[in-house]
Design brief:
tt1808, chain A; Rossmann fold; 1015 residues; nine-stranded mixed beta sheet; globular
């Protein structure tokens, strides 16, 4: 590969050659093919592209594809080049001969923009080398658009050298690999007129759904809400399927439009659907089984405009290139809404409750799907023959619109094609050739692969229908009218498989054991919501597969739901066999991984993209135990702060697990994004290649070793789990919610030189606000007795250390016990002051406001402060007036000695528990209220004589530790400090030994605990 400067020099020579012979090139006799070979090919070679495929890549991996087939209004038109990274198209180039006037040619620019818009290619180029025009192809194309619409760059050949840096930084292969192309696209997104094809088509089908819903509801008053939704979805799916088949030349072009011009459109459509069933054998058109849509009344005035919207020139859509993957992203969002009926049987479309609570639908990005499929399906089929692959079963238990299953199916198709191409003569029945270097799998093979290998479940009947539709459209890729008809004539074989045995409707984590927990049957609406699914059922489930050895791969993106968002779905699972995996503070998706590990065969692979919090959260310890017991982690990709889902701030990761009962020590690939601003293109390239880059961290490490992986993920070793369970069973005391208080929230910073004036201006009364003052400020203000009573000592982690709290403070608080934020309108002076100084920060004078009222009792008398984020446990005993920020929680129970509790909380037992059962952020413990409430504390309630002696000894040792730390604070000589530190460590070791005794911890278990805390 040439350097950038060398490439610039080569382009300069190319421009000079063109200039020297310009008159000859601009003649009509100089053909497009010539300009491509002599100039355009060489132009893009200067930008680093392997135009001639000198690397010898297979067809599907070539960097530059010539004549990438596209149909425009029923006619075939090929963009001359498709430039790709991997097998992903990045931009098109349409070539013309120099005699054409590119700048004014609206027909050529429309064609380019239309096929790029339909394939979601954001930028593309129209050029004859004489001229070079770049178009933003996200702007929806219209037949009467001028050539200037969407054009964002126009150059002549004379500009190439001067503009080389700009061209190189946008369209060179290197620029795309580094992500600058994608950054440019993203920075220019959302400009006026831009409307990507999936968003545009989503608006269209949502509009059609609303038209059909209102009309069908009025004309068919006997339909209930479920029947209405089924009819609408089925009609739309049938029409869209047939319209796609027309653009792919499988069906007669314009047939639907012809029907729309007739009277009684729906009756004629039913006749067309019946013929489609004879041809395709898909349950989509099975009118014998369908008892609803065959008896519907639908007005012509509704159906006619829907069908007309699907045809050129009114329609901008080209269904020959609108990919199944794009349709999947459309349908994923489409599924987020549903039709409901009012009391008067009027139809209304609204967002589903679960979607509204979750904050929207988040479609899984293509690069995530690719990575998961590559690392599961790809690993399973590597170096295997088609015969060996026949028995591999791939499942998505929450398949949605079928995104993961379509990608898995595509992966299988490509693998089979590559295998057969090694010996085309031998496999004449399996593959056929359409032109030089272009081969396709026979339809029979495509169907066989789908039926053998692909399986899915979803609780939503509409999602099941859409998954089937997506997979069936994938089967039909590359088919023609002739090939479909030939199958009917020669083999009496209909074109599509019936997927009823592969894609099923039901709740993957609730089975019929749910009914054993209920004396009375639930109403039908509730049963439809729950929709139990029995995996072992031979007919309705996947009993045959489970009996034959279970699934080989389970992939997908399960639903993320917290219990406080949707309590019902958790209650449903708790009434089934899967209740053993339930624990508080968990996320609903975790049930899906526990179930996946149960459904996997030995050595089977499981991969999800899911929230990364499971690696440390207390509410995921059951999941961690399940993963460690039943599987090996083969790879873990931490997206860290990178936003995988555009509209969601949730932190995510991808794991790949291998089902294995032999998992004591094993290697795992660990990847982490270090730069949240890395482009999706850079990330995609890294995911595909695995090559290290400056924005990523990548290494292999042993699980449960002392290496970095163990510091990142809280995996519970079975021997740890045994000790943790022993601790839990021995404990007999838990803190209560009323025993724990919060510190004070910061509201707003003030300017330094106004602090004295503020007190006077605001005319502060008790309850008005909280202010922090330093020593100098206290001296300057003449407080009267009443005012002085409001001043309270304020402390930070500088004074509050493990065990010991220093009484010397640097700041004081003017304290309030109301929420200033919620009462701000009552205090106009405060409001005005905040508005005036809201952008100014200072470290000297800081006003504080309470997020919610705090009980003042927590800041007075005996109490224990708990630092919320810390590398090791840090609990501080104080018995003096002490006010703190929200960096601390305050523990103040009434029925236990607080010095005993302080020693107990600072012990190895509690540190061990919090490390493996609590919450973590990286290497830090996150000790919020929930972990504190679940601490397994032991307290001598029965006044056992021996245990009373132990508790009293712990109290004395805690006092000795506090006194020792006080002395350490005062000494000046290092030698004295060292002696005191040794003494202090001995006191704490004695406390640990006494607490081990209370729990019956053996020497062997003690060693395990202490070694785990050293990691």
């Amino acid at each position: 590969m040439h350097s950038k400067e060398e490439s610039k020099e080569q382009l300069k020579l190319l421009v000079e050659t063109f200039r020297d012979n310009l008159e000859q090139y601009q003649k009509s006799t100089y053909k497009e093919a010539q300009v491509r070979i002599e100039f355009i090919d060489k132009f893009f070679k200067c930008l680093g592209w392997d135009v001639d495929n000198k690397q010898g890549f297979a067809e599907q991996y070539k960097e530059v594809i010539n004549e990438d087939s596209i149909k425009i209004a029923g006619k075939t038109k090929a963009p001359d080049y498709a430039f790709r990274i991997g097998n992903i198209r990045k931009f098109f180039v349409e070539a013309k001969k120099p005699a054409k006037n590119i700048k004014e040619n609206s027909e050529s620019s429309f064609q380019l923009r239309r096929y790029a818009w339909n394939t979601k290619i954001p930028l593309s180029i129209l050029t004859d080398f004489d001229e070079f025009a770049v178009y933003d192809c996200r702007i929806k194309p219209k037949i009467d658009d001028k050539s200037s619409v969407g054009r964002i760059m126009y150059l002549t050949f004379e500009d190439y050298v001067n503009k080389f840096d700009e061209l190189y930084n946008l369209f060179s292969k290197q620029a795309i690999l580094k992500g600058s192309f994608d950054r440019y696209v993203e920075e220019n997104k959302g400009k006026k007129g831009t409307s990507e094809v999936d968003n545009d088509f989503l608006k269209q089908i949502e509009k059609w759904r609303e038209y059909l819903a209102k009309n069908i509801a009025i004309k068919n008053s006997d339909l209930n809400i479920y029947e209405l939704n089924y009819c609408i979805q089925t009609i739309l799916d049938r029409i869209i399927f047939l319209r796609i088949a027309e653009d792919r030349e499988i069906e007669q072009y314009g047939k639907l439009k012809e029907i729309s011009q007739m009277e009684k459109v729906y009756i004629n459509l039913l006749d067309y659907f019946k013929k489609a069933d004879d041809k395709y054998n898909s349950s989509l058109f099975d009118l014998k089984k369908d008892k609803l849509t065959v008896h519907l009344f639908v007005d012509d005035k509704i159906l006619k405009p829907i069908i007309e919207d699907l045809y050129y020139p009114k329609s901008p859509y080209d269904f020959s290139v609108l990919s199944v993957e794009i349709l999947g992203s459309v349908y994923e969002k489409f599924l987020g809404k549903t039709v409901r009926l009012t009391a008067s049987h009027q139809a209304k479309v609204e967002e589903k409750l679960e979607v509204r609570k979750a904050g929207g639908i988040y479609y899984t990005p293509e690069f995530v799907v690719d990575y998961i499929v590559k690392n599961t399906v790809g690993k399973l089929i590597e170096n295997k023959t088609p015969k060996q692959i026949e028995k591999i079963k791939i499942l998505d238990p929450a398949c949605g619109s079928g995104t993961f299953l379509v990608r898995a199916y595509s992966y299988l198709l490509q693998h089979h094609l590559d295998y057969y191409l090694k010996n085309p003569k031998k496999f004449k029945k399996e593959i056929y050739q359409v032109k030089e270097n272009q081969w396709f799998l026979a339809t029979e093979i495509r169907k066989k692969i789908l039926l053998n290998n692909i399986f899915g479940v979803d609780i939503d009947p509409q999602a099941v229908g859409i998954t089937k539709l997506s997979l069936l459209l994938k089967v039909l890729e590359n088919e023609t009218k002739e090939s479909v008809n030939q199958q009917l004539k020669l083999f009496q074989e209909r074109a599509l498989p019936n997927l009823d045995s592969n894609i099923k409707c039901g709740n993957s984590v609730v089975d019929s054991s749910y009914f054993y927990q209920n004396k009375l049957a639930d109403n039908i609406d509730n049963l439809k919501r729950i929709n139990p699914f029995d995996w072992e059922d031979e007919q309705k489930g996947f009993g045959r597969i489970l009996n034959e050895g279970k699934f080989d791969a389970i992939i997908g993106n399960p639903p993320y739901v917290k219990e406080d968002v949707n309590r019902k779905i958790f209650e449903d699972v708790k009434k089934t066999k899967l209740k053993k995996y339930y624990q508080g503070k968990m996320d609903f998706w975790q049930f899906f991984t526990c179930k996946a590990l149960d459904l996997l065969k030995e050595e089977g692979l499981h991969s999800y993209i899911a929230p990364s919090s499971w690696i440390t959260n207390m509410g995921a310890s059951n999941l961690r135990n399940k993963i460690l017991t039943d599987s090996k982690i083969t790879s873990f990709f931490d997206f860290n702060d990178f936003k995988v889902f555009k509209d969601a701030s949730i932190q995510t990761m991808i794991f790949v697990l291998k089902k294995s009962s032999n998992n004591k020590n094993h290697l795992a690939d660990y990847h982490k994004i270090l730069n949240k601003n890395v482009s999706k293109e850079e990330l995609r390239n890294y995911l595909l290649t695995g090559k290290d880059g400056k924005d990523f961290e990548h290494f292999k490490t042993k699980i449960n070793s002392k290496e970095k992986m163990n510091k990142t993920i809280t995996f519970i070793n079975p021997k740890f789990n045994y000790i943790l369970e022993k601790i839990r069973q021995k404990s007999n005391y838990n803190l209560k919610d009323k025993d724990i208080g919060n510190g004070i929230d910061v509201l707003q910073d003030f300017v330094k030189d106004t602090h004295l004036k503020v007190l006077k201006d605001l005319n502060l009364k008790k309850g008005d606000g909280i202010f922090i003052l330093n020593k100098e400020e206290i001296k300057k203000i003449n407080f009267n007795k009443t005012e002085f009573e409001k001043i309270k000592p304020y402390y930070t982690s500088k004074q509050l250390k493990k065990y010991f709290g220093n009484t010397k403070n640097d700041y004081w608080i003017i304290y309030a016990d109301v929420d200033v934020r919620s009462n701000i309108t009552k205090y106009p002076n405060i409001k005005n002051h905040l508005n005036k100084f809201k952008k100014v920060l200072t470290s000297v004078f800081r006003p504080y406001g309470l997020h919610r009222p705090r009980e003042q009792r927590f800041f007075e008398g005996e109490k224990i402060f708990s630092l919320r984020k810390t590398k090791e446990v840090s609990f501080t005993y104080t018995n003096f007036s002490c006010y703190v920020s929200r960096a601390f929680l305050i523990i103040k129970p009434e029925n236990i000695n607080l010095k005993y509790l302080t020693g107990f909380l600072n012990s190895n037992i509690i540190h061990f528990w919090l490390k493996f059962k609590g919450k973590r952020q990286g290497e830090q413990l996150q000790i919020d209220k929930a972990p504190l409430l679940e601490l397994p504390i032991y307290h001598n309630k029965k006044q056992d004589k021996e245990e009373t002696i132990i508790e009293n000894e712990i109290i004395k040792l805690t006092e000795s530790t506090i006194d020792c730390i006080k002395r350490i604070e005062k000494v000046r000589l290092d030698s004295e400090k060292s002696l005191l530190e040794k003494q202090c460590a001995t006191f704490q070791k004695k406390i640990d030994d006494l607490i081990y005794k209370l729990y019956g911890i053996t020497e062997k278990e003690k060693k395990i605990i202490e070694e785990s805390l050293d990691k």
